[in-house]
Amino acid sequence: MDKLTLLSQINLFDELPMKDIKIIDKNSTMTPVKKGTQILIPEQPLDVLFFLKKGQVRLYRMTSQGKQFTTDILIDGNVFGETESFMLTDKETYAEAMTNCYLCTMNKAKFEAFIKATPEVSFKLIQILSNQLKETHDISEKIALGDIRFRTLFLLLKMSEKSGKREKEWQTIHIRITHEDIATMVGSSRETISLLMSKLKKEGLLKKNLLGYSIKADEIKKIIMD
User: Fold this and answer.
1) What's the predicted TM-score (pTM) here?
2) 94, 62 Cβ separation under 8 angstroms
């Protein structure tokens, strides 16, 4: 797989000229990562940024009771990790490959030298950080205030906006996610989520497809806004 082509498709770099992409290509390493691999572990901090070209990565934290709490699911084109200047995940965050992935990595010294020479990348990183903070705030607020049904509908809508495509009244969710994953994100149990997902299917708000799920986004928006 051509690393140069993959880098040019990462959303952080999608407007950079090819000469800058070639600099990143020269100073980064692309690695295939198998499903289930722990990429980030708080006890073993890595001073690097990760550029996710292909695959799906789950970010999560551990509660004081030792349970996993999923905070985000990243898909193709996302950036995560930290350096001294930019922190796209906090020091308590774990990252795990949910599928086989291709990751490009760049260490602190090389990345910070690069962004000093390309201020447009710094600006994009600030945009990414702002968007992540807003999304985290929105999800946290909805999870805190709503019941399990409300939280789950909100999460499904967010995932469809992040990854899906519109097909008439249906909007796809192109994220591989289990009932257990949903449960850890909305503060519930797998059994409760399984029952709720079955109910949403019967109500015509959710259906299974080859790549994951589809939802009736407009109807769910109305439910959430009421």
Assistant:
1) 0.67
2) yes
